[in-house]
Amino acid sequence: MEMGGDNPISIQTMWKESIIPVLTDENTLNSILNRLNSLSMLGCDIIRFAVPDMESADALSIICKKTTVPLVADIHFDYKLALRCIDGGVAKIRINPGNIGSVEKVKEIVNACKYNGNAIRIGVNTGSLPKDIAEKIEKGHISRSEGMVETAFREISVFDKLNFHNVVVSMKASSVNETIEANRAFAKRFDTPVHIGVTEAGPLIGGIVKSTLAFSTLLKDGIGSTIRVSLSSTPENEVITAGEILKECGKRSGGVKIVSCPRCGRNGFDVHGFVDRWQNKLLSIQKDITVAVMGCVVNGPGEGKHADIGITGVGDTVIIFKKGKIVRKIEAKDADNAFREELLSL
Ligand code: SF4
Questions:
Q1: Which of 258, 282, 266, 269 is nearest to 331 (CA)?
Q2: Is 41 a residue whose pLDDT tops 90?
Q3: Rounded CA gap, 145 and 123, in Å?
Q4: pTM to 2 decimals?
């Protein structure tokens, strides 16, 4: 996948469990493959896996051979893990030359990447800056965001000397301001594509708020070639959040737009339950339509009159409408099936 320049901004997430069971259990492999496919349907372009040992590298190689979704191996310290993953077919590796140990080992990785066409992401986090840079920050000589940029520059220089330029850089802090400052300062000095993200952003709601603030600011500045929302939640929620941010920032278009009411005391239809059941399915549809999910017939069809399809209800009756006109009245127990039929007929 091409990154940077005029290429669309890609969405990534990270796999959240060990993949070692793949080595011995075909059911686990199949369920991972199905979930990768679902994440891709939701708009995810790249999925990263932690590779802490050789078993994980072998498992990732098996997964790579069975999916068309570009996968990234996240590696620390051991260059042999990187070589195994590159050989196994990953699209990209995330590794920092600074923690590989010697230039010779970095050179082996670079040569393998050049040969196979892999990109490398340098991942700079405030929590793991080189000792000398961390000391400068502690002594107040530079800010944490300056420390991140200096670290990124140092890591890029290693690849530059090896004439390797297929590089993406990330500078992540759990502070929104530090993340913005570092990425802005970096973008002023370098053309290298940037992966943006707020690290350890927190649980669902707090993490969404922080990511939205940081991303919308950076994206409006034209910074960011690929984004990852980090949440203490599912990869699906990370992908949905990233997709919604890109859409609202005008960086991605198309797909289903869900308009749903917050519900109030007038409600006759379980908006929350319906949205919970249908959100991921709807957002996986590659069709430019608006779906309205409204709590009551008083305001539902009226407020949702621009929607291509909508649903609301009163008592035990559920109403499906299209462009504000009622097309079906059914019992609540038949609502999902009827909605599916009407959706398919669009
Ligand atoms: S659509 Fe009806 S239930 Fe939903 S918020 Fe408006 S008035 Fe309340």
A1: 269
A2: yes
A3: 14
A4: 0.93
- Can you give the residue ranges of every domain in the chain? 10-248, 257-344
140 neighbors 91 (Cβ within 8 angstroms): no
> What would the mean pLDDT of 223-241 be, rounded to a whole number?
97
Q: What separation in Å is there between the alpha carbon of 283 and the centre of ligand 1?
A: 23
Distance 278 CA to ligand 1 centre (A): 19
Per-residue pLDDT band at 5 (split at 50, 70, 90) = low
Cβ–ligand 1 distance for 302 under 6 Å, the answer: no
State which H helix or E strand residue 95 sits in.
Answer: none
User: 287: exposed, middle or buried (C-beta count within 10 Å: 0-12, 13-18, 19+)?
Assistant: exposed
**Does the C-beta of 264 come closer than 6 Å to ligand 1?**
yes
Residue for token pair 């035990």: 316
pLDDT of residue 115: 96
CA of 318 to the centre of ligand 1 (A): 15
**What is 257-344's CATH number?**
3.30.413.10
Residue position matching structure tokens 């940029």: 149
pLDDT confidence band for 297 (50 / 70 / 90): confident
Closest ligand 1 atom, CA of 312? 1
Instruction: Reply yes or no on whether the pLDDT at 6 is more than 80.
Output: no
Q: Which CATH architecture has domain 10-248?
A: Alpha-Beta Barrel (3.20)
Beta strand 309-314 with 317-322 is antiparallel
Q: State the Cα–Cα distance between residues 325 and 221, nearest whole angstrom.
A: 42
| Ligand 1 proximity of 299 Cβ (cutoff 6 Å) | yes
Length of the chain equals: 346
Please name the amino acid found at residue 57.
A
Q: Indicate which atom in ligand 1 lies nearest the CA of residue 261.
A: 4
Q: What pLDDT digit, counting tens, does each position of 300-330 carry? A: 777 777 899 999 999 899 999 999 899 999 9
- Is ligand 1 within 6 A of the CB of residue 266? yes
Cβ 250 under 6 angstroms from ligand 1: no
